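Teaching assistant's notes for section 4

Start the section by putting this record on the projector. Ask students to predict, before seeing the second block, whether Ig-like domain-containing protein will look compact or extended. Collect guesses on the board.
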Amino acid sequence: CFISSLAQINGLYLILLQVYQEPKQLILSHGSALKVSCFVNGTDYPNLYWYKWTQAAGFTLVFSSLSVGSVDPKSKDQFKSQRPEKLQITLESDGVGERDSAVWYCAASPHSVPEQLLSCTKTTP
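Reveal the predicted structure now:
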């Protein structure tokens, strides 16, 4: 997955991020291990997310990360996520089953880390 752009609308600049998911496609058999990495460009301090899409439930937010080393929750069912670097998040499982059939999407939102704490801002997805 790859998205990138910088647009100006009514004098405001919108920053759109580049999101890369590796591997781009992955089809696994029952019991296979899973590891997918997501990389982001276009901002220095992104918030990172893993969404799961199933036909029955649609999109569901499963993991979110606001900083390196912090993912909430750390695991869900047999899936786990880690944030080893500020521009990377991973999705892993030791073994997937038939009931785990889904499409996973990595997403990012920009978040600036202020030079002074007095100007701190929070962004939400």
